[in-house]
Each structure stands twice: as structure tokens, then as C-alpha cells.
Amino acid sequence: MGRDLIRIAVAVAVFVAVAGAWYLLGGRGQGAAEGQRAPNFTLEQHHLPPEEGGDAAGAPETVSLASLRGKPVFINFWATWCEPCRWEMPFILEVQNSRPDVHVYAINVGESDEEVAAYLDEVGLEGLNILMDKGFEVYGEYHLTGLPTSLFLDAQGTVCVRVAGPMTLDVMQANLDKSMEPC
Questions:
Q1: What is the pLDDT of residues 135-159, one digit of tens each?
Q2: Residue 48 falls within a domain, yes or no?
Q3: How many Å apart are CA 20 and CA 15, to the nearest integer?
Q4: What's this model's pTM, rounded to 2 decimal places?
């Protein structure tokens, strides 16, 4: 128990340090504001090698935002230690499973594949599309200041809606509906 608290405290300290440095330095690029094209990124999918309990051998696959164009995109930035994130994760999985017309990705910020795997096992969220932003690169590029933060993009990659904080399933569905047409 004490070891877990230390890991959470370290993760929070790193998160605050990175967010504070970004804020003090003025951020990079234009971020991901509503009405603007979201900056492209390429991230690894959540993956555990076979020797650590994973299913597939080899390196994890990567996903770029540019490769998702053609369908609306719902991306959610989260961490396992974030209670509001944990609360909304089942809704995100439900959206992923019920909306084949939308790309859905939960982007974990600052944690290892092992930490994410343990959380997914604990709460039964296997199958959720998870990308890993281990070094806070996309978090910083998108000028995020807290978790959870969600972005709803139209099929061309323009940010239609940006939400800081947790959402209910109904709010997620309403925001997805806004991203079905060009913003």
C-alpha cells in the first residue's frame, strides 16, 4: 500500500512539473483549440510483451492521428491515478463498442504499459483502444492542463469540442453527434 502511494505521489509530481514547465514556457505550437486542426501525433498502442503477460510478440503498433482521417475521432487523455478518469472509462468503452462510425482512443499520460495493464485487469476494460503518451509529448503539444480531457474531431481532424473534466455517456454521445459534420 505504501509503495503504491509513493508511485502515485511521484506520478502527480511529474505531471505537475511537466504541466507547470509547459505553462511557464508558453507551450508549443497552436495546441488543439476548438475550430482548429488538431496537431498530428504518432503514439504506440498499449502493449505488453509475451514475457510480461502480453499476447503478441514484437514491437507495439503505432497510430497516427493523420491515419484516422475520414471518420470522426474521439480521444480522451487519462491516467490510472485520476479518479474522474476512472469513473468515465466504462462509458468510453461503451462508445467504442457502439459507434463503429467513430475512431475512439483513450490516451494514457505518463504511465507504463504494466501500470495500464494492471488497471485494465482490475476494472475489466480489456479491449479499449489505448495509446501511450509516456513522455507527455502529446499532452504538452495539445496544451492540456488537467485530466481527463477529451477532444471530439470531425473527419478532417478539426476540433469540434474540447472538454476538460469527466463526462457522462449522454454528454459523450451529444459531443460525438457534433463531430459528425464538419466543424
A1: 999 999 999 999 999 999 999 999 9
A2: yes
A3: 8
A4: 0.81
